[in-house]
């Protein structure tokens, strides 16, 4: 299992589930109930240890922190989770579009930066 992966590689991996629920909640300044709620809203899906305990990665903690910022500003948790999901999808789409533009030899700045088709 993960014991086959060298420790340094696991510590550098943003997706490695290194944090327990208690530690993750502490790091985010929130409660385990908040982490469970964003899990139920399908914003993040923690991995489970062999004993069934939730484990969170650094990437998941960054996503949870963004949701917490929105909730702290008064956004309902379900809406906050949806916003974060849409932001993540938009960022991924923009990354893919930039790759396509580079491959096509177009400027990566975005639409309107070139002469367009004609």
What can you tell me about this protein's structure?
This protein is mostly helical and 118 residues long. It is built from 5 helices and 3 strands; from the N terminus they run H-E-H-H-E-E-H-H. A 3-stranded antiparallel sheet has the order 1-3-2. A hairpin with a 5-residue loop joins strand 2 (47-48) and strand 3. Helix 4 packs across helix 5. It starts with 6 loop residues before the first helix and ends in a 14-residue tail after the last helix. The mean pLDDT is 86.
Report the average pLDDT across residues: 86
Number of strands: 3
Content of β-strand = 5-15%
Helical coverage, percent range: 55-70%
The whole-angstrom Rg is 19 Å
Instruction: Enumerate how many helices there are, as a single number.
Output: 5
Distance between the termini: 56 Å
Task: Report the principal-axis shape.
Answer: flat
Query: How would a textbook summarize the main sheet?
Result: 3 strands, antiparallel
Structural class: mainly alpha
- Give the strand line-up of the largest sheet: 1-3-2
List unreliable stretches of 5+ residues.
none
Order of helices and strands: HEHHEEHH
């Amino acid at each position: 299992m993960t014991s086959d992966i060298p420790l340094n590689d696991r510590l550098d991996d943003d997706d490695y589930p290194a944090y327990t629920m208690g530690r993750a909640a502490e790091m985010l300044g929130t409660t385990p109930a908040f982490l469970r709620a964003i899990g139920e809203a399908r914003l993040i899906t923690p991995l489970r240890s062999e004993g069934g305990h939730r484990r969170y990665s650094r990437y998941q903690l960054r996503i949870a922190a963004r949701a917490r910022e929105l909730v702290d500003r008064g956004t309902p948790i379900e809406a906050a989770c949806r916003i974060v999901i849409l932001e993540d999808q938009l960022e991924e789409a923009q990354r893919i579009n930039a790759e396509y533009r580079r491959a096509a030899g177009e400027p990566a700045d975005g639409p309107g930066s070139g002469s367009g088709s004609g």
